[in-house]
């Protein structure tokens, strides 16, 4: 709705891009510097423990729209966790803050 409360028709286009190198759900994503950063996530379920998610092996990927490709990279000391939220910092456009998450143990 617009400021007057009138309905506004929204149109959008969808375009398929390259898949991430590691399938995942419950991940955090943010756009920074014309790249999409994906952190954490769950890649499946533990066959031994009922309802225990398996965390993604390679935690961080970055999508590069110009080449329609993903790259895996490392941030030293980044935890292996799922379901994070990311936000940009206000003092530095090149910084990201990672908030919340789980180590996969749903009971703790």
Question: Notable features of this structure?
Answer:
108 residues; mainly beta; 4-stranded antiparallel sheet
Structure description:
There is one protein chain. This protein has a domain at 28-99. It is built from no helices and 8 strands. The chain has strands spanning 28-32, 35-39, 42-45, 53-55, 60-64, 69-72, 85-88, 96-99. The strands form 3 sheets. It has a 4-stranded antiparallel sheet with strand order 1-2-5-6, with no helix packed on it. A two-stranded antiparallel sheet has the order 3-4. It has a two-stranded antiparallel sheet with strand order 7-8. Strand 1 and strand 2 (35-39) form a beta hairpin. The relative contact order is 0.22. The model has no long low-confidence stretch (mean pLDDT 76).
Number of strands: 8
| Count of helical stretches | 0
- Distance between the ends: 42 Å
**Could you spell the SSE succession in H and E letters?**
EEEEEEEE
Name the average pLDDT. Answer: 76
- Sequence stretches where pLDDT stays below 50 over 5 or more residues: none
Structural class of the secondary structure composition?
mainly beta
β content, as a range? 25-35%
Instruction: State the major sheet.
Output: 4 strands, antiparallel
Rounded to an integer in angstroms, the radius of gyration calculated over CA atoms is 17 Å
Describe the strand arrangement of the main beta sheet, using strand numbers.
1-2-5-6
Identify the overall geometry.
Answer: extended
Percent helix among the residues? under 10%
